[in-house]
Structures are given as C-alpha cells and as structure tokens.
Design brief:
It is a single chain. Helix content is 41%, strand content 17%. The chain is of the alpha/beta class. Helix 9 packs across helix 11. It binds nicotinamide-adenine-dinucleotide and uridine-diphosphate-N-acetylglucosamine.
C-alpha cells in the first residue's frame, strides 16, 4: 500500500516507518524537521534496507502539502506532524491551533483532492482531561484542560465530521497514553530539544550524565507509593498499533477513537527503579512539589484496541527502559546535526 506519513522524521513516526517498510509498504514522508531529524530518516533507511520518498515541507503550507499528496497519490495517510508540548501550548496557543487543527484540515483537503479517504491520526489520552473514572475507556467524556489537548480534541472532531461527509472515508484516532523506549538497535529514539518535559527522557539524561538529578513532582498522591501513575507504552508496540489501525481502516467506513496503552499503571518511583536496573547505576532524585495540572493516575482500557485492531502490547517496563538506555548511551547528545 502507498502510505503518506506526515511527521515521519519524529520520535513515533520514525519507529512506525520501520514497521511500515518491514511490512512492504511504499512510503512518502512529509516533514519540516522542526522537531525531527533527517538523520533519523537516514537511519530508518539503513535499518530497514529500504528506500522511501521524503518531501521537506510544512503542513501549514496548504499548496505544498496538496502538491506532495497529489504527486504521491497515497492509499492511506498516517498523520503524526504536530506540536506536542503542553507548557508551550499555554504560551503560544495560536501556533498550536494553526499547526494541529488548520494543518490537519489542510491535510484532509489535500486527501480529498487526491481521492484518498483513509487516515490514522495521532491523538492523545490528554483529550480526556480529569479522570471521572479509571481506566479511561473511549466513551469517557472528552474535556481537555490545556490548549494542546484542545487542539487534539478539535482535530479529532474535524476528522470525524470529514468521515461523515466523505463517501467511503475511514479514520482511526489513536489516543496514545505515554510512549517511551526506542528501537532495539539503539539507532533511533526520542531526542527532545532543551529540557525534557516528560519523565523517561529526563531520567535517561540523568542516567547518561547530561543532567544531575531528577525532580519527582510530588510524593503525596493517592497512589501505591505517593508518586504519579501513568500507562507507559513501548514505542515499538505503538508502531505496530499503527499498522493494525491501517489494516483495520481498509475494511470499514466511519471514525473510531481507540486507546493505545498497556492498561497497567506504573508509578514514577517504579519507573526510576526499573531504569536504574537497566542502566546499572542509581538515578539521583529529589522530591519537589507537584507539577501544576498533573493528575494522580492515568491508564487505559485496552479492550477496544484488542477487539477492533487485534493488537496487544508485547513489551514490559524493563524492555522499555533497556531500549531507552541503549539509545541514550549510544547517542548521549541525540541525533548528530545533519550535514
Ligand atoms: P515529534 O515532535 O518527535 O514528531 C513530530 C514530527 O512532526 C517531527 O518530525 C516534526 O519535525 C514534524 N512537524 C511538526 N510540525 C510540523 C509541520 N508544521 N509541518 C510538517 N512537519 C511538522 O513528536 P512525536 O512524539 O513523534 O509525536 C507524534 C504525534 O503524536 C504528535 O502529533 C503528538 O502530538 C502525538 N502524541 C505524542 C505523544 C508523545 O508522548 N510523544 C503522546 C500523545 C500524542
Ligand atoms: C504528559 C503531557 C500529556 C501527554 C503525555 C504523553 C504534561 C502536563 N502532560 O503527561 O499531555 O499526553 O505527557 O506524552 O506535560 N514527572 C516527574 N518528573 C519529571 C517529569 C515527570 O516526576 O521531570 C512525573 C509527572 O508528575 C507524572 C509522570 O512523571 O506523574 C509522567 O509525566 P510525563 O512523562 O510528563 O507524562 P504525563 O504527565 O502523563
């Protein structure tokens, strides 16, 4: 199948490319490298021993995007491109709405023009907001609490409305929980710019000596050990979920939102202990006050993914930490700058 992949040079996109190429799909990546690296794409080519088309461009550039989609004439699209930092979205909300909402609308318009009616979209568990009950299932109310989450909820709504008015169209909205880990080769992985916002990349940078100590945001939550609980999902399992979603979207019309998590909650302390085992050294930390906006617990109901996609995660927390450590220790400063 011909698959057009926006944001393929980023963290989740690059891992999904490996899965797509291994399954024999023909791929075109569309990325502006604002948070992705051409080196990641070069490594994907090496690892999979396959080539792919790459177009450097911005999803906000409606014409360039439409041209790239028309030229490639895809059977399906996977839409990763977007901005994803919650804190930053509070500071520059318009940029978030333009990229994540208008950019997605540009993509649907380009697909319409090229006669492509299949999309898998990167959504987030953040669309649920405060938990009214746990685990989060897909019928839990959508009530995001920050601009980033609202852009994802709006893009979901736009895509849903598009499927209602586009004959034969099919969309899968994958609501990721907490993607972590790296490809087993250690050649590609998460390469955050500046100070990592998320837990595992921060822990990885402490382990490799780039940062001195982790700050644990609160140990007074109502959880097993007082620290926040999340549903961490191995990025390679997440990549496999995209392939399953692509296959599923071929046989149905309409729009489905599907959680992608393990259904298991892990506390910050448990993750830190597992990472220390994986890297063979202690992770120094301080307990500091809670991070504003954080919830105590978040984890997924996973039965819909299993039922509709026939997908189940394979990797446990130790595998997530080991693969992250391989990537971080082999690439302490992330990807080298492209020449
Ligand atoms: P990432 O930043 O590593 O990848 C995004 C890619 O999109 C990058 O290569 C970037 O250069 C590209 N991009 C950004 N803006 C663009 C634009 N205007 N035009 C073209 N390309 C553009 O992020 P990721 O972690 O791989 O996340 C991928 C998607 O999954 C995002 O939409 C994100 O919101 C969503 N998501 C991520 C997480 C997570 O924790 N990583 C969780 C839930 C949802
Ligand atoms: C973050 C995003 C969320 C996104 C999700 C998936 C915020 C506020 N939310 O949520 O929108 O969907 O990632 O990637 O950014 N922690 C520490 N110290 C740190 C970093 C984190 O103790 O330096 C704790 C947090 O308090 C939390 C847990 O680790 O309990 C996980 O944090 P993080 O990785 O940022 O993920 P989320 O909070 O789930």
């Amino acid at each position: 199948m011909k698959v057009f992949v926006t944001g393929g040079a980023g963290y989740i996109g690059s891992h999904t490319l490996i899965a797509l190429l291994a399954a024999g799909h023909e791929v075109c990546v569309f990325d502006n490298y604002s948070n992705g690296s051409p080196v990641a794409l070069a490594r994907v080519r090496q690892l999979s021993n396959c080539d792919m088309e790459v177009v450097e461009g911005d999803i906000c550039d409606e014409e360039a995007l439409a041209r790239a989609v028309a030229d490639f004439a895809p059977d399906a699209v996977i839409h990763f491109a977007g901005l994803k930092a919650v804190g930053e979205s509070n500071d520059i909300p318009l940029r978030y709405y333009r990229t994540n909402v208008t950019g997605s609308m540009n993509l649907l318009g380009a697909m319409d023009a090229a006669g492509c009616g299949r999309i898998v979209f990167s959504s987030s568990a953040t669309v649920y907001g405060e938990a009214q009950y746990l685990p989060f299932d897909e019928v839990h109310p959508v009530a995001p609490t920050n601009p980033y989450g609202r852009t994802k909820a709006m893009a979901e709504q736009v895509i849903r409305d598009w499927t209602l008015t586009t004959p034969g169209a099919s969309a899968v909205l994958l609501r990721y929980f907490n993607p972590v880990g790296a490809h087993e080769s250690g050649r590609i992985g998460e390469d955050p710019q500046g100070i990592p916002n998320n837990l595992m990349p921060f822990v990885a940078q402490v382990a490799v000596g780039r940062r001195e100590r982790l700050s644990i945001f609160g140990d007074d939550y109502d959880t097993r050990d007082g620290t926040g609980e999340r549903d961490y999902i191995h990025v390679v399992d997440l990549a496999a979920a995209h392939l399953a979603a692509l296959e599923f979207s071929g046989g149905v019309e309409g729009c489905e939102a599907i959680n992608v998590g393990t259904g298991t909650s892990i506390t910050v302390r448990e993750l830190v202990d597992a990472y220390a085992r994986a890297c063979g050294r202690p992770i120094p930390f301080d307990i500091v006050p809670r991070r504003p906006g954080d919830v105590a617990s978040s984890y997924a109901a996973t039965d819909k993914a299993e039922r509709l996609l026939g997908w189940k995660p394979k990797f446990d927390l130790d595998a997530m930490c080991l693969s992250s450590w391989r990537w971080q220790s082999d690439n302490p400063d992330g990807f080298p700058l492209a020449k």
